[in-house]
Amino acid sequence: MANLNEFERAIKIPLVQSLLRFEDVELTDAETEKLLTNESLEIPEFSEEESLIINNVLNALTYLQSLDISKVKADMDLFIKLNSLLAMDQALFTGSLRNGFCSIPCIGQIPVPAEETVKEEIAKLNSISAAHSSPENNSSDNYKLIASECFCNLARLQPFWDGNKRTALCLCNMELLKHDFDLLIIPKDKYAGFEERLTPFYKKENDDVIGYLARNCFMKQRC
Fold first, then answer.
1. Model confidence over 141-198: pLDDT tens digits?
2. Contact predicate 203/107, CB 8 Å
3. What digits encode the pLDDT tens for the residues 11-42?
C-alpha cells in the first residue's frame, strides 16, 4: 500500500486521532497511518465497539475526500450525512435528528433541540471567512473563536443520539479546510483540559472551554 504524502499525513493523522479520542481510542501516528493505508495493525486486538468506531471514522473520512471542498457548504444536510457515517450501528437512529430525551452522566437529561436552533449554529460556520477578513475584528484569528463556539454549542445541543462531538468536529473542519485556515484538532496533551472545561459548559456555568480550544487546539494545515 502507498504511504501517505506529507500533506495527507499532516491533516489526516491528527484529525483521525482527535475523532477517536472522543471515544477513548488512542493510537500512535504509525498505527493511525497503517489504518489509513489499509495495513494491518500489530497491536492488541480492538474490542468490537472500538473496531466499529474506527471503521466509522475511516468511512467518514473517505466520504469527505470524495467531496469538492471548494463547493461544500456547512448545512443541515451535510451535518446529518456526517452523523449517519460516524455513528453507523452505534445508535438506534442515524440520518436524522434526535427525537427524544437523552442523558449525559453528571449533567442529566438533555431536551430535544429545536431544528432551527441547530441550523442557526451551523450557519455561524458560513461566516468564518467574512469574520476573518472584517476590518472590525482586532484579531486575524477570530475564526478560531467562531469555530470553537460552534463546535461546543453543537456538542451541547446533542442533536443526535450518538457521535455528536465527532460530527460537530468534522463539520467545523470542513469549513476550515475550505478556507485554508488552521484546523480544530484536540491533541492528547490538551484533551484533559478540554474535558475539564466541557462539563461546566454543558451545565451553562461558564464558557471557558471555547477560549481554551481557540488558544490551544488549532493546527496548521501545512507543516
1. 899 999 999 999 999 999 999 999 999 999 999 999 999 999 999 999 999 999 999 9
2. yes
3. 899 999 999 999 999 999 988 998 888 876 65
Compute the distance between CA of residue 19 and CA of residue 88 in angstroms, rounded to an integer. Answer: 15
Q: How far apart are CA 184 and CA 99, in angstroms?
A: 29
Name the packing angle between helices 142-157 and 164-178 (round to 10°): 150
Question: d(Cα 140, Cα 101) in Å, to the nearest integer?
Answer: 39
Residue 57 predicted with pLDDT over 80? yes
74-88 burial code (b ≥16 CB/10 A, e <16): beeebbbbbbbbbbb
Q: Which domain holds residue 47?
A: 6-219
Task: Quote the number of domains for the chain.
Answer: 1
Give residue 107's pLDDT band: very low, low, confident or very high (50, 70, 90).
Answer: confident
Say how far apart CA 3 and CA 213 lie, in whole Å.
31
CA distance 187 to 163: 18
**157, 113 contact by CB (below 8 A):** yes
Say which CATH number the domain at 178 has: 1.10.3290.10
pTM: 0.91
Cα atoms found within 13 Å of the Cα of residue 160, Cβ hemisphere only: 27
Instruction: Say if CB 157 and CB 117 are below 8 A apart.
Output: yes
Any residues with CB less than 8 A from the CB of 197 and at least 6 apart, and which?
A: 206, 208, 209, 212
